[in-house]
Amino acid sequence: METLIATDQLILKPVELADLQDMYVLRTDPQVAQYIERDITKSLDDIRLFIEMVRKNKFYFTIKTINGNDFVGAITLWNIDWSKKYAELGYELLPQFQGKGLMSEAVKAMLDYAFTEAGFEYIEAYTHQENIPSKKLLERLGFKLVDDKIDEDNLDVVIYGINKTC
Ligand SMILES: CC(C)(COP(=O)(O)OP(=O)(O)OC[C@H]1O[C@@H](n2cnc3c(N)ncnc32)[C@H](O)[C@@H]1OP(=O)(O)O)[C@@H](O)C(=O)NCCC(=O)NCCS
User: Fold this and answer.
1) Per-residue 3-state assignment (H helix, E strand, C coil) for 74-113
2) Separation of CA 21 and ligand 1 centre (Å)
3) Which domains can be identified in the chain, with CATH numbers?
4) Which atom of ligand 1 is nearest to 107's Cα?
5) How many angstroms does the Cα of residue 27 sit away from the middle of ligand 1?
6) Calpha distance 166→163 (Å, rounded)
7) Ligand 1 binding pocket, CB closer than 6 Å
8) What average pLDDT score do residues 146-153 get?
9) The whole model's pTM is what?
10) What's the 164 CA to ligand 1 centre distance in angstroms?
11) The predicted structure's pLDDT at residue 166
12) What atom in ligand 1 is closest to the CA of residue 93?
């Protein structure tokens, strides 16, 4: 059975091909991509391949509103290292849904799921040092700056981490 995570306002569930159009809009929005390093999406076919790829990891979820089933964004655990019970967190919201606390709600639920059900013990998030909304979100939810580690591929990135607590 597929994972389904519910919060007060949101439903998180594995992305599927039916989300193709919404995922295209999300991943081609220049504001959303401002601080994210990724290959530029050119077509619906790129997104179709992307969805097929991320469905294999089982932790790429769409975020939709409970009331109305509006697609608002996506959240994922990736770069997984099960030997360390480690994953990296990624998240993005469509611009019209930012600034309302929705991603805080989604990340809180994702952490709870990651630590209590999925078996992770340590989660990191890599974010651009100028991405203030993302840094604020992570700090609000208890992530701490990992100051002894850098992203050698992108020196503009800062790394935050959070441990499972009992
Ligand atoms: C990073 C990102 C997800 C943050 O989105 P966000 O909407 O600021 O985050 P939240 O959903 O937690 O909302 C927080 C904002 O909502 C406000 N808010 C309103 N109601 C709230 C509530 N009930 N709870 C928490 N915050 C609330 C907060 O005051 C805050 O606004 P502020 O920054 O003006 O103080 C968003 O900017 C985004 O998608 N950016 C593009 C993609 C991206 O950069 N992803 C990160 C890659 S590492």
Assistant:
1) EEEEEEEEHHHCEEEEEEEECHHHCCCCHHHHHHHHHHHH
2) 23
3) 5-163 (3.40.630.30)
4) 12
5) 18
6) 10
7) 32, 35-36, 91-93, 98-104, 127, 131, 133-134, 136-137
8) 90
9) 0.96
10) 23
11) 67
12) 39
Least confident of 21-30, 40-49, 132-141, 153-162: 40-49
Give the span between the Cα atoms of 48 and 21, in whole angstroms.
Answer: 9
Residues 115/103, Cβ–Cβ less than 8 Å:
no
Token pair for residue 69? 């089933």
In the block, tokens 């790429």 appear at 60
Give 52-95 pLDDT, tens digit per residue: 999 998 999 999 999 999 999 999 999 999 999 999 999 999 99
Ligand 1 center to 33 CA (angstroms): 15
Residue 137 predicted with pLDDT over 70: yes
